[in-house]
Amino acid sequence: MSDIKYDVLDNSKVASFHKRLTVLAALGPFTDAFNEFGASVSLIAVGVLFHLSALMLSIITAGYWIGVAGGAVVGGLLSDKLGRKNLFVYDTIGMAVFALLSAASIDGISFFIFRFFLGAFIGIDYAAAVPLVSEYAPADTRGRLLSMEKVFFMLGTIATVGIGLGFTALYGTYLAWRADFIIAAIPPIVLFLLRRKMPESIRWAVERGDKKTIEKVVQGLRNCGLAPEINLDAITPKGYSTIQSVKTFFSKTYKRQVAYIFWIGAAYALIINLVSVYSSKFLSDLGASSTDSLLGTLTIDVLGTLGVLLTVFTADKIGRRMLGTLGFGLTAIPSLILLIAYVNHFLSIPLVIGMFSLFFFINVGLVGTLQYVPAAEVFPTNLRGLSVGWEKLFEFGLALPSLALYAVLGIEDTFIYETAMCVIAAVVYYFLSLETKQMTLEQIQDRYVGGGEISYASDFDVKKQSELKGPRSFSTELDKDDDGDRINR
C-alpha cells in the first residue's frame, strides 16, 4: 500500500483548473517576449537619445539575457527551497516595477540596470511557473500544457513588434519605446492579482513534508475533483540544503539529465538567434527599409507561432526524442538553401524571409517548445526548479556569444555554421534525450534513476483504491459524497 497516490492528478482530463494555471503561468513567457523583443524597438532610439556606442548597445542587450539566465538559476534554487507559489505570485511585482523603470530610463547606465533586473525577475518566474504546471499536469497531456508556455512567448513577440510598429507610427521612434515598456508592465500587474488564487505545488509540499500546506492544498483540490490520496501520518518534515541540492544535481546519478538539459538550452541558443534576434538587421543589410525589416520579422514570428501550435498537439504523441531530433535536423534545410543562394548570388529579401520563416517554423516549433518540457520532467521534485534554471542559463546565457559569432563569421560562413550545427545538434540530442511522453513524474524517476526516498504509486502498478487504508488518508476522508460513497473521479 502506498502512502502517497497522485493517480487523480496524473490520470485526469484537462480541467478548468489546469487551463487557468497554464494560462497564468504562460503569461510569464509572454511578458518575457514582450520585453526581450521590445528591445528591438528601443535600441535605435536609446542609442541616439543616450549617445551610446554600438558596444554599449550590445552590453545593454546582454544585460537582459544575463539577468534572465542568472535569475532563473537563483529562482530555481529558491523555488526548490521555498516553494513554487510565493515566487509565482511575487516575482510579478519585480517584473512590473522594472518594466516601468525601463520606460523611465534617463541614460544608458540606468537603462542597463533596469533591464538587467527586469530579466532577473522574469528568470525567477520561469523557475517557479514551469515546475508548478508540470507538477499538476496530467501525465498524457503534460507536454501539451507545458508547450503553451512557448505559444504565449510567440504571441508576445508578435504583440511587441505589432505594438512597436503602431507606436512608432503614432509617436515616432524616440517615444515609442517608452510606451512599449509601459504596456509591458500591464500583464505582470494582472498576474499578481490572479496568481494569488493558485495553490502551492502539492508535490513540493509532500517532498518537504509540510503538512499544513498539504492540508490546505488538498482542501482546494477537492473542490476541483483533483485531490490526491495522502496519508499525513506518513509525512515527515524535511530540511533543505542548497549546497547539498547542487551537489546532488551534478552527481553521477543525474549526469545524463544534466547533459540533456544543457544541450537543449545550449544548442538552441547557438542556432536560433540568427533568426530570432538577427533577422531585422540581416534584412536591413540586404537593403530592406526599417519598416520592411519589422514586417519581415513579424511574418517570421507568425510562422514560428504556427510551428509551436503544431507542436502543442504532437508533443504527447510523437514524444520528446523525435520532436527534438527532427527540429534540429530539419532546420538544416532552410540554412542550406540560403547558403546555396548566397554562393550562387541569388539571395533576395523574399527568399530570406521565406527561409527564415521555415527555419522558425521548424526550430522554434519543435525545439523551442522543448525549452519548457524536459527540464520540468527529468529531475525529481526537489531539483526541478534548478533544472529549469539550468536550461535557461544556457538558452539565454549563450545568446550574446552566438550573435558575436555571427558578426565574426560573415554571411557565408554563418550559413555553413548554421547548417553544420543543426546536424550536430540533432545527433547529439538523439543520444542524450530521455523519452518521457505520457509518463508520470514518478515513473520517469523510477525508469531513469530508480525511484526516490518516498514510495509513490502509479496507475500502472497500484492496488485498487478500495485497498487504501490507514489512520489519516486525507483524500479518503474528504472525497466522499453525502451518502458516504466514493466519488468517481
UniProtKB/TrEMBL annotation:
Coiled-coil residue windows: none
This protein's record includes keyword Lyase: no
Compartments, as annotated in UniProt: Membrane
MF-aspect GO terms: carbohydrate:proton symporter activity
Region (Disordered), start-end ranges: 468-489
Cleaved signal peptide residues: none
Keyword entries, A-Z: Membrane, Transmembrane, Transmembrane helix
Superkingdom as given in the UniProt entry: Archaea
One Gene Ontology term, aspect cellular component: membrane
Family affiliation: Belongs to the major facilitator superfamily. Sugar transporter (TC 2.A.1.1) family.
Protein name: MFS transporter
Organism: Sulfuracidifex metallicus DSM 6482 = JCM 9184
